[in-house]
Amino acid sequence: xxxxxxxxxxxxxxxxxxxxxxxxxxxxxxxxxxxxxxxxxxxxxxxxxxxxxxxxxxxxxxxxxxxxxxxxxxxxxxxxxxxxxxxxx
Length: 89
Hints:
By secondary structure, the chain is mainly α. The protein is 71% helix and 0% strand.
């Protein structure tokens, strides 16, 4: 049975391959002045869709990172137990 993590790794591999293809064909098109070259446009659209799928699969990790990075300072910097004043008893 295919798990979500397996799908995520397949999407990452497809993003890598399609990104390399788009970058390579884009450079060839620019260097040699070719206007249309070997499905560059369609692979670029495929790459964009794969990026969106990748973000959907990892949305909880992305939002957790953004909350941790740009969250409220009070939530990020809570004092540890040693830094708190001792309870008076």
